[in-house]
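Practice record 12: protein with adenosine-5'-diphosphate.
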Amino acid sequence: MRTAVYPGTFDPVTNGHIDIIERALKLFDRLYVVVGDNPQKSAAFSPKERVEMLKEALKKYNNQIEVEHFDGLLLNYVKKKNSNVVIRGLRAISDFEFEFSRALMSKELDKDVETIFIMTKDDYMFLSSSIVKELAMFGGDVKSFVPEIVDKKLKEKFRK
Ligand code: ADP
């Protein structure tokens, strides 16, 4: 069985993330979507809320996907799941440097783990969780960028 781990902050999950997940499912039998915390960003949603939104958005794949929160070293999580693949999405060149150093560091720590990059779909090239939050905060319509549950949660969070 081919398994992979897709880590991210998912604050909140967007259609860009869902697209990467759906494409990863064509390559792997089982995907672990792992919600972590990025020390560079302060999250709008708690880990529990982020996991719940992902679970709801991905419920039709629940025999192939597991979503959970993990706050330790990603490579330990990958080993725990008996996997050796990390999936990351790439949007613009701006993602590249960060992802490049992250993948190289991962290789340094564990040479058996491979990072696989899936290129964004052009529609989602400029889509990020931060842009979605900013739009929602100012009352913009984010329906076409996020799963239904996220649209609902954003409305609840930013309702004046
Ligand atoms: P992180 O804080 O770990 O970067 P994110 O939730 O922002 O977490 O992103 C998780 C992964 O999904 C990253 O590899 C990111 O590049 C990718 N990603 C985010 N948005 C998109 C998108 N619109 N298209 C493709 N990949 C994306």
